[in-house]
Every structure is written in C-alpha cells, then in structure tokens.
Amino acid sequence: MELNTVIYFLTASVLLTLAPGPDNMYLLAKSLASGAKSGVALSGGLASGIVFHTGLVMLGAAALIKASPFAFMALKFVGAGYLLYLAWQAFHEQGDLELGQNSDTLAYGALYRRGVLMNILNPKVLLFFLAFLPQFVDTGSEQLALQIALLGAVFALQAFVIFAFIAICAGRVRAFISKTRNLNRILGVVQGVVLVAIAGAILAAG
User: Above pLDDT 70, what percent of the chain?
Assistant: First the structure.
C-alpha cells in the first residue's frame, strides 16, 4: 500500500470523525456530565468498536450480514434496544453537578464497555466500513486482509485521538459551568435525547 493512499485515507477519516454526528454529541454530553476521564474511557470503547467492525470486514462477515435481511434486522433491533435502555438511564439521572466530583456512578471500565457495545451494535457503522475501507485497498493484492487491518487501525487511532480531545475540552468547560443549577439533570436529558435519536437512526437504516 502506497504512502499517499494512507495519507488520503487518514485525511478522509479525520474529516468524517470531525463531522458533527451522534457519537460526537453523546460523547460531548457525557464528558460535560461526568468529566474528561469518563469521556476518554467512552472514547476508547468507541474506537475499539471500530477494530471489531474492521475484523468483520476482513472476514467477510459484514457482507454476509448485509446480505441477510434477518441478521441485519436482528442487529438493528438489538442495537436500538440497547441505546433506548441507555436513554432511559440518562433521563433518570438526578442531582446537581459538583466540581471535582464525577456525577456518573459508572466505573471507567463500564464506560469503555458501553462505548464498545454502542459501536458494535450499530449496523450503520458496519455498513459504513464495508463501503468505506475497500475504496482505499488494492483488491487484487494478496495482502488484502492486511491492508484492511492497517486502514482500520489508522481509523480507530485517529478517532480515539479526536474523541479524547473532545472529551478533554468538554471536561475543561465543565469546570466553568458545574455550579449551574440542575445542570446534571439537564445534561441527562440531553444524553437521553441523543441516544433516542441514534436509536431512531439505526431503526431507519435500510
């Protein structure tokens, strides 16, 4: 694989990751509500989910899921159901945010796992990688799987860096707004709305 191809891929990946989307919005809301470290943990989970989808593309499993209406439908409903469950939890968050305290009772490991599940249960992400990664590989190469793995790793790494940067910036902003009355409740509602929107987008995916 030529260096120019990797550079073009990295540029496209950064632009796609920076584009406003549900992952960015949820990460921002979670980081504001729970702090930068919680946001970074969630970022790690979201990036790890990219590795999972890359593996599916390498194995050809993504194409099989796309070709099977039942498998795709099952993945949609499981993913949407999980997000709606998270939304229900977010809507029921209580209390005010206090500086220096983490308003989320979840451990960082739990937040990491949440990010992983949010990503791997989203069929839109799976279809995106199925369509996106092959555009930058030499389909006639004997090292096709290695090329896909490399591109997936590049995408996951840049995504984690950008997501972590968003989390850290949001954590800094949190220090200025932490005394706002009922802020944690407001951010819980924002998280819930974003999660419901993601679930709706998943269900609407063709």
Answer: 70
Q: What is the C-alpha to C-alpha distance for residues 146 and 131, in angstroms, rounded to an integer?
A: 17
Q: Which of 32, 77, 55 is nearest to 129 (CA)?
A: 55
Residue 189, C-beta contacts closer than 8 angstroms, at least 6 positions apart: 90, 91
Q: What is the pLDDT of residue 40?
A: 93
CA 156 to CA 123: how far, in whole Å? 17
Reported as a single tens digit per residue, the pLDDT across 52-102 is 888 888 887 656 666 777 766 776 777 677 767 777 766 765 444 443 444
Tell me the C-alpha distance between 179 and 140, whole Å. 59
The pLDDT assigned to 95 comes to: 43
CA distance 57 to 38: 29
8 Å CB contact between 114 and 194: no
- Radius of gyration, CA atoms only, the chain: 18
Place of tokens 């950008």: 162
Q: Is 30 in contact with 38 (CB distance < 8 Å)?
A: yes
Torsion of CA 62, 68, 72, 77, to 10 degrees: -150
Q: Which tokens belong to 101?
A: 């305290």
